[in-house]
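Annex B, item 7. Sequence and structure tokens for protein A, then protein B.
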Amino acid sequence: MASGRILRFSSVSFCNFPFKVGEANILVAAQQMGCRPGAIIFSNVAAKEEHVRRGQLADVCLDTPLCNGHTTGMDVLWAGTPMVTLAGETLASRVASSQLLTLGCPELIAKDRADYEKIAIRLGTDKEL
């Protein structure tokens, strides 16, 4: 979901990927889209407290469209980090929208992929937000 434009503007991204070959593929694809080296950091699974604390380091959380963050999404929001989502057709793809509506943050629910990108870049680059 993260487009090259979002990756070029990212300061730090945190990912947990279970397979080392997947990490290499993600790094190659990100560099091809203009992401600067070192902007993506892969982290190990951590205890709940550390996991939530990590969420505070991000400018924005990019929710995945096919299967939303569910518990992880709530952890990020609880840490105070905004989360951008794009609601889909299935229950699993609408969870984050429901969370954001309940919390009074409908402006973080994108209308389409272009809107998702626009919201993510604004949150990642505007230090006043």
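Protein B:
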Amino acid sequence: MSVDLKSVLKNKAINQWRLFWLISIPMSVVMVIAMMRVDMSTGAGVSTMIGFSVRWAVPFIYLVVAASSVQILFPGPFPMWWQRNRKYIGLCFAVAMAWQGVFIFIMSVFSREYYYEDIYLLRDELEGTVGYIFLTAMVVTSFHFGRKYLTQKQWKLLHKSAIYFLWAYPFSVYWWNLSYYENPEPIDYVFYWIGFLAFALRIAAWGRSRLQTAKRNAPESSTPLAFRLLGGPDDRLRPFSSRYRSALARASYCFLDRAEVVCGSCAVAAFLAFRTLPVPLHYWAGRRAGHQGAHLDALMSFAMKAVWRALLSSPHAIPGRTIPEARTRTY
């Protein structure tokens, strides 16, 4: 007897509010049990619960980030169910973060000395506060009583900005753990790569959507594919000579469907963003400015190698090109 996945996923028990209660109630029970197993009268015990609640929250924001992308890349019953319940998965994330907020409040009120001596950091306070502001705004505007005060454009901008920030905050924490801690925990690797995959799926889905739009709107256009994906009309190419137009077209064909180029482009963008920051902000972005610079230089080296590898492995690769020697550092 075969099971119809589409029918199973339409079951009311695993959709909308019932799905929310199905996840949030057991999660809250686990939180209470964990609280009973640690000494909540000490700062170390409360700190343990803060980390425990975060580890419950992070998977849910990653699921929210990847929901629409999976539906675009791999359409089917399960991705459709995933996207349909994205709001309620996001509310589960809010519940886990509410538990974290409770533990932070307990820490700041009843273990003030431990909090300010061993935990407090201004940068973390600012990022955490912004995250909670975004989260509260998302929860309020997820319902009609809050959404009615925003236009569709404002609502979309708010939620997209909030999702990106709430993804970036934990992802950057695990990146920091892997980059600077001598002995990162296995869970740090898991959450780092899951977060990376979630955003990579979003980039891939964006590229696929733009590619489909470009093919549908201008299938016979002579505009290089890279410009069509960016939404640029033919007029933008007129200042270029035919030689440069040919080079751009050739490069765009080489870059098509090359995951290495996407990763390399992101690395270049990150490199330029950090390098153009004023010196005080650059230092603020990393606690160890020297190591930060070494990481970014190595990132640029990786990016350039990735682009050249993609060019050379493409069937349209430019003949005679070789990978240039890239400067590397030991750090």
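Comment on protein B: Residues 227-265, 267-297, 303-331 have pLDDT under 50 and may be disordered.
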